[in-house]
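Example with several molecule types.
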Amino acid sequence: MLIPGKDKMIDRDKPQKLYIQLYNILKKNIENGEWSVGSQIPIEEELCKIYEVSKATVRFAVLELVRDGYLMRHQGKGTFVCKRVKHEGLAMSAGFKELMLEPGIALHTQILAQTVMMPTDDLDLKLNVPKDNHIIYIKILRLVDNDPVLLQEAYIPYHVCPPLLEEDVVGNSLFELFEKKYGIPITKVKNYFEVAYSKTDESKSLGLQKDSPILVLEQYFYSGDNEIIYIHSIKRPDRLRFTIELEKK
Amino acid sequence: MMAQGKAVKDIMVDVFSFPHIPYWFSIKQAIGIIKVSLLSAKKYPEPMAILVFDEKYNLLGTLGLKDILKGLEPKFLKPNSKSQLPGADDSELSVLWDTLFNKESKEAAERPVSDVMAPAKFFVEPNDPLTKAAYLMVLHDLVLLPVLEEKKKFIGLVRMVEIFDELSGAVLTP
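Resulting structure tokens for the full complex:
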């Protein structure tokens, strides 16, 4: 297990948020090789002790490093430093939507849920909201020729756009509703792709055998500094393609 | 204003004062929400309850602390046991107590909240008189009474504390 130098400590007098300070310290540990690729980082409790911060601060900082590709979580084993592919200098060349699907394919949309819930698991961290915030939950199934191909679950903090609860999300994309109807500009999207195996409920929704390979896409939408939507999508491997164009600035 | 002249809309509270969950959440998830959203945050809304909704944000029921305990421990659903009555033999009560909340309760906690919630069967309209709300709440032993606009849109909740405050005022008025 790797124990970092104690000289890099959190400065509580700084106006910067604690988790951002911790993020920068841990990132430096990785970048300067103190934490080498493939090594396991200290567990949450140890990091709390070393840096004298709360579990929430550690969780936020680690989640951000996972999001940025510095760390990788292995269920039941721990969190490890991973080889990072540098992507600085790349930018979306086209306008972005929730998902850019292959053009020319007729998609049928079914709204499976449009309701409200409280955040469970690490949804509060993913949306960067307190645990007692209400969340609008929208579950959408996309079909091609009556075959389910894509299951999307969108989570939006209720306070960001309360009328969304009653909106028609079949005829309008969330992106369009936010930007055009409610004047909430989306300024940044982070996309994370992963290949995984389907769980029982996911297999059922997509008409797959249990433990079938699926493509998982996680998307974080921002308006300025505020995160406003988190979408978790799973796609069958055999139908439909995502397209993303990137261009060097 | 006299309590008799007041309508439900005058005393109803915001639905977002209470945590919301969909009916497929487990009892365990509901407990986690109560612990984190209410107890840890030292929020003690009256009554302490969660609202349970369907996929289209229709209110299906309420989930109070009592409903959760009943769902976790089936013995609480059998009030005929002598040992659960006030004044019963203490030794009998301690035997019962020792067997409560065992492994079966952990399994029971995986059940959906829809199994143990109190279904929302009764509603009032915003312009209904308070006396109607009071009557329904007392008659059916309700902790919360939903307010629906045009029998469809869920816009608020009536709590016993406000009903009591308004109606009891008439007794104290000389």
